[in-house]
Design a protein that fits this description.
Layout: E1 3-7, H1 16-29, E2 34-38, H2 44-48, H3 60-65, E3 75-77, E4 82-85, H4 94-98, H5 107-115, E5 121-125, H6 132-139, E6 145-150, H7 153-172, E7 179-185, H8 192-204, H9 218-222, H10 230-233, H11 238-256
Parallel strand pairs: 1-5, 1-6, 2-4, 2-5, 6-7
Antiparallel strand pairs: 3-4
Helix pairs in contact: 1-11
């Protein structure tokens, strides 16, 4: 059965896109059929997977505002054996265009469900905001949201706001919406603050924090400029080892359930 997860955090720079593409790449390496849906107008996930966002002719914009099947817009990276529904700058106008549309919060969900049976995993990368695009991402999260949290103090402040948004969507639109897990990112074991954040997040989300913690890594920061996930750019680096462990942890948990 297909698992559809949305990676979301309204705070930018927490490793959300990095987590999306690297988790997807390792799930693909583990033999899973994976689709990445880039829901961010900045199209960072698209670029990180080696696709020129300015050359995209169809993608998530069409999923939100078109009625046709989006499968023809899905790109396959044969090297990674990873599929992508790309984004482009045109997506920036989608929130305005969606305002007068019927069932505007469920447009992405409707489009993804049509193609989901072709994949084992669908990972949706949301923009760093709490607007209509992110609400569409939350509505598409049939199996839950994955929340990347940077191991710094300010990240905790944003976590409360995100929790409130999830609660509002759950109460008003999607009662089955759940948090699948929290991913701790950019962990620096040289600081006491990072350890404090880890403890605080575990207290806030008991039994929902992934054991695999993503360290701060130069290699992880470099990989996107080469259009590659860490599994291809620096497969022996600490960041690669951490994301491989995260993918295995997610897969094991899903298979157990």
């Amino acid at each position: 059965m297909t698992k559809i997860y949305t990676l979301v955090n309204q705070k930018g720079g927490v490793g959300k896109t990095t987590s999306t593409i690297n988790l997807a790449a390792y799930l693909a390496k583990l033999g899973q059929r994976v689709l990445v849906v880039d829901l961010d107008p900045q199209a960072n996930a698209t670029s990180c997977l080696g696709v020129d966002k300015l050359g995209v002719v169809g993608g998530t914009y069409d999923a939100l505002l078109g009625e046709e099947d989006v499968f023809p817009y899905i790109l396959l990276n044969e090297r990674l054996q990873l599929s992508l529904l790309p984004s482009s700058p045109s997506l920036a106008g989608a929130e305005v265009e969606l305002v007068d549309e019927l069932a505007r919060e469920s447009r992405l969900r409707k489009a993804v469900v049509k193609v989901a049976n072709r994949y084992d995993y669908v990972l949706v990368d949301c923009p760093p905001s709490l607007g209509l695009l992110t609400v569409n991402g939350l509505m598409a999260a049939m199996d839950g949201v994955i929340v990347p949290v940077q191991c710094e103090y300010l990240a905790l402040e944003g976590l409360g706001q995100l929790t409130q948004t999830i609660e509002r969507v759950r109460s008003a639109l999607f009662p089955e919406l759940v948090v699948r897990g929290v991913v701790l990112t950019m962990f620096d074991n040289r600081t006491n603050l990072a350890t404090d954040v880890v403890n605080e997040v575990n207290n806030h989300f008991p039994n929902q924090v992934f054991k695999s913690i993503i360290p701060r890594s130069v290699r992880l920061a470099e990989a996107p400029s080469y259009g590659l996930p860490i599994s291809e750019y620096a497969p022996t680096s600490v960041g690669a080892v951490a994301y491989e462990a995260l993918a295995k942890e997610l897969l094991k948990g899903d298979q157990k359930n």
